[in-house]
Amino acid sequence: MIRVRILRLGLVCAATVVLELLCRVGIIDRLTMIPPSEMMRALAGVVATAPWFWPDVTYTLGNLVAAIGLSVLGGFLIGVVVHAIPRLRRVLDPIFTSYYAVPTFVLYPLLIVFFGIGPTSLIVLGALFGIVAMIVATVTAIDRIPRVLLKVARVSRLGSVRTALLLKLPAASPHLMTGLRLAVAYSVIGIIAGEFILSTEGIGRRVALAYNNFDNATMYALLVLILAFAMALNAALGAFEQALHRRWYRS
Amino acid sequence: MAKAALRRETAAAMPGRATAFSDTHVALRGISHTYPARAGHGAVAALGPLDFDFRRGEFVGVVGPSGCGKSTLLDIIAGLLVPTSGTIEMDGRAITGTVAQGVGVVFQEDATFAWLNVWDNVAFGLRRAGVAPAEIVRRVDYALAFMGLAEFRRAYPSQLSGGMRQRVCIARTLVLQPRLILLDEPFGALDQQTRLLMGEELLRLWRETAATVMLITHALDEAALLSDRVAVMSARPGRLIDVVTTGWPRERDSALVADPAFGALTSRLWALLREESRKALGVR
């Protein structure tokens, strides 16, 4: 495992060095991309001096937390309901299957009509990106709970709440974690992309402004920041999942 | 019907050595079950009508062709399934369709909790029942030592073999000190040697508790070795076609397989089941 991590880190470092060299010797035009070392310097500069940086980071993080919360909790609850009503599940299954083939951004005008211009529409957009992944994962997770465990619960005379908390939830958690990771990833994409195209605030919006103004230093600095944040978030969720289920996979 | 079934009993081996059992512990009266029609399938008459008395403290094996309703019968006795008709009494009280106090079930499938270690798996039911912590420790430690799992107390089910996981499930049932233990092919996935040894452990467990045991099994030799009586079921819908009294003493182990009476008993069970198994397979 450690060896794999070292190899992975080595690969990233090697790609960064190659990119640095390609930019430095001019094979990659500076108008197209600046060297990674300059991206890092620009990022340090933005963090230290840009007056908009912390307010925009706060705005984006706030939207993210709300969108992730909505998609994960909403997706879980809807998943439970959909699983409990087989007819509803049969109706919705094709919609869930083809959901990610539909560009969710086309719904944005509708969201503005319902929620107005501002963070609410963005949050709903981010949540819409992630929620179906969580619904599908929840339905699958409940499907995969071994039936024999439900028999054990009945023989143990557990009530429905205890059965849910003590047996169903732990038994379903591997699939729920998969849904959680997907919902978080999709919500991040939804919020950043939504800000990029449609917002007047936030880190996504700053990337768009820098892009339109040919401010490559700021644009790449923020791209590095978003990339690092997404990777750190994913790694944190992965570590949480591993800690939760490490014992399951020992053999 | 129960009297008729009991009259059919055959003392197959060594009269005079058999353990004596006193009163009726669980009584099945006119039990039958039909699974309702579903899309593409008509209603399926799975079981009965069937009458049987489990005597207190006896070990009853149940054998029958595949699909004859053995597991349905177990689910009905356990209270997991309401029979289409008939009643069940335990200690003279009607328990039809309810999970009665003092009933422990070991299922064929792996029913260990993957997220709990062996010790916590075994302690699960005791904690839910509100047993005092010191008593939980005493009972769980004893059960783990009894089942040969003491050194795996901190292991998780994924680290154990299939047989060890099944022993965890048996230990989890044992610590609750049930008066009626229902086992649905608990050794189905094990090799022959392990089955024999697990059978010995089960007999030891049965002797140390005063529990009544019902063991569903496909293996005729297992039923012949472990049981005081073997209930033989017909092809679907499962009815009792005979109840064979083995006549074994309470103190017994797998050394019985060398006894000529064991071979005779197994042959008798096969003779009873042969035609029924052919029917179940659709072979004429």
Protein described:
The complex is a heterodimer of chains A (251) and B (284). Helices cover 82% and strands 0% of the residues of chain A. By secondary structure, chain A is mainly α. Chain A has one domain (53-244): MetI-like (MetI-like fold), CATH 1.10.3720.10. The longest helix of chain A is centred in the last third of the chain and has 39 residues, at 160-198. Chain A is globular. Chain B has two domains: 2-102 and 178-281, Rossmann fold (3-Layer(aba) Sandwich), CATH 3.40.50.300; 112-176, no CATH class. In chain B, helix 3 packs parallel to helix 5 (162-174). In chain B, the strands form two sheets. Chain B has a seven-stranded mixed sheet, with helices on both faces. Chain B has a four-stranded antiparallel sheet with strand order 3-2-5-6. Chain B has helices at residues 2-7, 70-78, 118-128, 133-146, 162-174, 192-208, 220-226, 260-281, and strands at 10-11, 24-35, 44-55, 59-63, 85-90, 93-94, 103-106, 180-184, 212-216, 229-233, 240-245. In chain B, strand 5 and strand 6 (93-94) form a beta hairpin.
